[in-house]
Amino acid sequence: MQVKALEDLLAETPFFKDLDPAYRSMLAGCGVNVVFRAGEFLFRENDPAERFYLIRAGKVALEIAVPGRGPMIIQTVQEGEVLGWSWLVPPYRMQYDARAVELTRAIAFDGACIRTKCEQDPKLGYEFFKRFSVLIVQRLAALRLQLLDVYAQP
Amino acid sequence: MPNPETHIYQAQAQLDADSTNAWPTASAGALALQVHAKAPGTDLEPMSPRPCRVLRLKTETDDTFTLELQPANSTSRFNFVPGQFNMLYVFGVGEVPISISGDPDRPRTVLHTTREVGAVTRAMRRLRPGDMLGLRGPFGTGWPVAEAENNDVVIVAGGIGLAPLRPALYYILARREKYGRVVLLYGARTPADLLFRAELERWRARFDLEVYATVDRAMAGWRGNVGVVTTLISRAPFDPLNTVGLVCGPEVMMRFAVQELLRRGVSPQSIYLSMERNMKCAVGLCGRCQLGPVFVCKDGPVFRYDRIAHWLGKWEV
To answer: Which of A129, B126, B172, B267 shows the smallest number of beta carbons within 10 Å?
Structure first.
């Protein structure tokens, strides 16, 4: 029942909606609904990257601890967005802390399991890399713009 | 060369002379017609500053402030088109172009919001109520607020770029029934750099305006968005086929914002940018603000994207 509900949900999500239904069904089988209270960590820097998340509601801050300055937020991720690609890329370790800014509902996917399936089925692997590469390029472009610090004093 | 002195979004004078006073005027009906067209009228000695009095100086953020000015002849009105700018002259220091940030429907005083970045704006910040300065203007083309009627309007502002867009938003909100969805996307460097913060909160509380703000960086504890303003475009609620985009901010930010709007399906003919260049004369004589074949002061500062697309991102011009 829950798998079916997740399948429906994925079909409505831009990130997954044009995925082959069979793959979507498999993906739904690897997902589980999770809830995080405000302030709770989804993961910490250097944790094994075993999961990625589709945020259904709420907001998550990606943070990095800067010695002497405390944790800095480098990005927020919210409803409809996917969080985490470290599960796809060696050494499969989380690179930042992820903390719920507010009550956050998400679907957590077993990245390690999906990675194994991708190895076995190159078409599935291609579908995933196609989607995640777009996400990575978008985040890279945004990060470069952030690095330019365009609002700083000239 | 970007203007090191201010964040001004300049242009060409559209003065509609009022025979009874020395200030440029325009009837309310004529306001809309002036947008992107040279308004009929007479330049009232555009090179001669007119005296005006500082009514108020409001600190907006650490390095930005708003000056409220009144003509020395306090019975005259100051009419302008949203998006235009004035040349403000601090006596004995110098003159800089500064965009008008107030409400075009309240012409008794004129507001300018700027950043303290050089000698003139530093001196300007030290002005006190009652002090005098010189003003030339208004100059330049405005936002296509009348042409945007019956469409959704997406306003994308970065940093101090919200200042020249605020008059457009005032104009639209005063005629709200004439527009579809109205969305304001605003990005700043940090939470402390968010401009017009109290007003942003009031706008957010409205049911007929969508406001999304983000900052480039924040410390833990900030509950708002973090990320560049362009990332807000993909999730903003508007119909790209019937949307007019108004974009103002640092040029790099505008180029990325345009790419996102185009990616959403907004037509290049429906995107407008306010360009920033170093301006001196403000009437297209000195050539300081040339951008390819156009003068930002005379032909802008607000340009339709497709008309200047070729020149964007070319550091040689």
So the answer is: B126
- Residue B23 in any domain: the answer is no
Please judge whether B218 and A78 are an interchain contact, meaning their C-beta atoms are less than 8 angstroms apart. no
* pTM reported for the whole predicted model: 0.86
Q: Which amino acid is at B30?
A: A
CA angle in degrees (0–180, nearest 5) for A51-A95-B218: 110
Taking the CA of residue B161 and the nearest CA in chain A, the distance in Å comes to 10
Instruction: Write the CATH number for B56.
Output: 2.40.30.10
Residue B54 domain flag: yes
Note the pLDDT tens digit of each residue in B154-169.
999 999 999 999 999 9
- What's the distance, Cα to Cα, between the start and end of chain A in Å? 58
Q: Which residues of B touch A70 (CB under 8 A)?
A: 219-220
Chain B closest-CA separation from residue A72 CA (Å)? 4
Q: What mean pLDDT is predicted for residues B109-121?
A: 94
Mean pLDDT of chain B: 85
Contact predicate B59/B65, CB 8 Å:
yes
Per the CB < 8 A criterion, the answer to whether A28 and A21 are in contact is: no
Domain assignment of residue A123, given as a range: 2-148
- Going from the C-alpha of A22 to that of each of A7, A17, A19, A122, B177, the distances in angstroms are 10, 12, 8, 15, 47
Q: Which of B63, B217, B220 sits opposite A153 (nearest CB)?
A: B63
Q: Which two tokens stand for residue A123?
A: 């078409």
